[in-house]
């Protein structure tokens, strides 16, 4: 009876996450500094007229930022779940692999040495920087006799992040031009990106998502301990390698199109774990739509709280996510006691 009630609760959460995502997508097309009626949005989707300003806003601005928010939020939530499983730490996040720091340095290189100032030009640089940083952390953090220790991976990630952050600070303090352009990307947001940026990362995100779901059973076994997982026939090293690869593809792609947005990869899986348990397949499949919904809602809130201007989605997520995460951590501690 308890198992049946738990199954119903999990189904309810899954349906709620999908419903929330659908509502967020609809609101993202309707709400902004320029409110647009649902009938006009529908016309813009089905029979666009380039002469109508509202149709242009929907097609050229709101559709791209909605897709970017959906994809980036889902990717960050899944990547965060993977990192928590790989490290067996419920407070781990994708930044543990130096992904944000690597992307930041690569964007600065694009600005400073290649004179790229458009966000669409940053995509490949950010993706490449995130991937290189993660590969370096994974390679160094898994070498040696204690290479299967998650703590070593975390310490390596912290060291690489610190070094890359120092490089970022050095460049920013010596180049006013780089600072002016970089600050808009650094806060994290969904504006000034087009569908061409979505096309660039669509395949990496899809591949990363498939690998993530395929790694779910291995993560469930790793949660029991590396020795126990190996005793049950699980190749722990391969599972971690696949998880890191999926994290690179997901978080690298999300960071390249939306900037280094924090807290989603940490908050979503941590909150879900308290509701649906530690089954990683459920955490991944429910976390994806929930992560997309959270980022889209943050973007919608940012559009309306400072009219006629906007607050970037990354700022809204950080502002709301910090106290919510603190509350979750305190609640978890009280339950544990």
UniProtKB/TrEMBL annotation:
Xref: Gene3D superfamilies: ABC transporter involved in vitamin B12 uptake, BtuC
Membrane topology of this protein: Multi-pass membrane protein
Keyword Transmembrane helix: yes
BP GO terms, sorted: siderophore-iron import into cell
Protein name (record): Iron chelate uptake ABC transporter family permease subunit
TM stretches of this protein: 63-83, 95-116, 122-141, 153-177, 197-214, 243-271, 283-305, 311-330
Any one GO MF annotation of this record: transmembrane transporter activity
GO cellular component, one term: plasma membrane
């Amino acid at each position: 009876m308890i198992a049946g009630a738990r199954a119903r609760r999990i189904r309810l959460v899954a349906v709620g996450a999908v419903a929330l995502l659908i509502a967020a997508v609809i609101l993202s097309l309707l709400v902004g500094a320029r409110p647009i009626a649902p009938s006009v949005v529908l016309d813009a989707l089905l029979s666009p007229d380039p002469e109508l300003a509202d149709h242009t806003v929907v097609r050229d601005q709101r559709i791209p930022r909605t897709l970017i928010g959906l994809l980036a939020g889902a990717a960050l939530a899944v990547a965060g779940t993977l990192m928590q499983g790989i490290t067996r730490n419920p407070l781990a996040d994708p930044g543990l692999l130096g992904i944000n720091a690597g992307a930041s340095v690569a964007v600065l290189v694009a600005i400073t040495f290649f004179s790229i100032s458009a966000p669409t030009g940053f995509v490949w640089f950010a993706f490449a920087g995130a991937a290189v940083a993660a590969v370096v952390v994974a390679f160094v953090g898994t070498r040696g006799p204690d290479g299967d220790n998650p703590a070593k991976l975390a310490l390596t990630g912290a060291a690489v992040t610190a070094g890359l952050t120092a490089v970022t600070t050095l460049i920013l303090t010596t180049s006013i031009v780089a600072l002016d352009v970089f600050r808009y990307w650094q806060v994290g947001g969904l504006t000034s990106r087009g569908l061409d940026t979505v096309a660039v990362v669509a395949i990496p995100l899809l591949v990363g998502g498939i690998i993530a779901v395929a790694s779910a059973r291995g993560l469930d076994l790793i949660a029991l301990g590396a020795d126990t997982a190996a005793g049950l026939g699980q190749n722990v090293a391969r599972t971690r390698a696949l998880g890191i690869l999926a994290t690179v593809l997901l978080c690298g792609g999300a960071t390249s199109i939306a900037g280094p947005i924090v807290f989603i990869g940490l908050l979503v899986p941590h909150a879900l774990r308290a509701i649906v348990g530690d089954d990683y397949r459920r955490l991944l499949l429910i976390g994806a739509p929930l992560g997309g919904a959270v980022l889209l809602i943050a973007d919608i809130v940012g559009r309306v709280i400072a009219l006629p201007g906007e607050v970037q989605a990354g700022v809204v997520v950080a502002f709301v996510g910090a106290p919510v995460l603190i509350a979750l951590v305190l609640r978890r501690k009280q339950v544990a006691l």
